[in-house]
């Protein structure tokens, strides 16, 4: 597996010297869905994403994406875990860092507004903490995940683009103590050549 990842990294980063590349930075907002919304259900405003895209032709890119989204929520009530029941306010935090290889297909021509479809595959580092009074549980785990994406590039000038995209992130967990993670990210940012 390690050799496979090294070969993929060399292929992806090797294209930088032979083709046009773009790098991006975006503000990332998130909406928890599925099992993630059972723990934290509110829209989250804290996140950041960085990425690199390397053109294989006029419309196809390979690249990478990483970032950070943080989730926070609280609820008051009685909570049972095993044979223990606690009553009070429970605080929940999640920090998620994706590390993905990406593939994108751009429609239209360079210099025009370009919609695109993409997908990412890789790992998610997830740290989940639940606190109630003096008691705290923390779980940290790596998850394999996928992230389909749809977005639009708006050209600013010859060397930069404004972009918006929506990405569905799904991390599959093998740990029975921690659920699978899924959330939508809504990203607004800049890509430059």
Keywords, separated by commas or semicolons:
eight-stranded antiparallel beta barrel; 69% strand; 2 helices; 8 strands; Porin; 193 residues; elongated; mainly beta
Structural summary, described in words:
By secondary structure, the chain is mainly β. It has one domain (23-192): Porin (Beta Barrel), CATH 2.40.160. Helices cover 9% and strands 69% of the residues. The protein has 2 helices and 8 strands; from the N terminus they run αβαβββββββ. Strands 1-2-3-4-5-6-7-8 form an 8-stranded antiparallel beta barrel. β7 and β8 form a beta hairpin. The mean pLDDT is 87.
Shape verdict: elongated
Share of residues in helices? under 10%
Residues in β-strands, percent? over 45%
Please report the distance between the alpha carbons of the first and last residues: 32 Å
The total strand number stands at 8
Strand order of the largest sheet: 1-2-3-4-5-6-7-8
Q: What's the number of domains?
A: 1
**CATH architecture name:** Beta Barrel
Short description:
This protein is mainly beta and 193 residues long. Helices cover 9% and strands 69% of the residues.
List the helices and strands and how they pair.
Layout: H1 2-14, E1 21-32, H2 35-39, E2 47-55, E3 60-81, E4 84-106, E5 114-132, E6 135-157, E7 160-172, E8 181-192
């Amino acid at each position: 597996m390690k050799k496979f990842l090294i070969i993929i990294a060399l292929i992806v980063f090797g294209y930088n010297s032979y083709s046009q590349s773009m790098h991006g930075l975006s503000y990332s907002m998130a909406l928890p869905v599925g099992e993630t919304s059972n723990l934290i259900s509110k829209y989250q405003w804290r996140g950041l994403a960085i990425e690199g895209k390397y053109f294989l032709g006029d419309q196809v890119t390979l690249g990478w994406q990483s970032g950070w989204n943080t989730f926070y929520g609280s609820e008051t009530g009685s909570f049972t875990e095993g044979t223990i029941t606690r009553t009070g306010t429970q605080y929940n935090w999640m920090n998620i860092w994706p590390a993905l290889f990406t593939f994108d297909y751009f429609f239209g021509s360079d210099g025009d507004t370009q919609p695109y479809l993409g997908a990412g595959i890789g790992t998610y580092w997830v740290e989940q903490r639940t606190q109630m009074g003096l008691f705290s549980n923390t779980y940290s785990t790596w998850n394999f995940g996928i992230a389909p994406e749809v977005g639009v590039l708006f050209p600013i000038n010859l060397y930069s683009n404004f972009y918006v995209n929506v990405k569905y992130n799904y991390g599959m967990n093998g740990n029975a103590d921690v659920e699978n993670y899924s959330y939508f990210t809504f990203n607004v940012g800049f890509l430059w050549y």
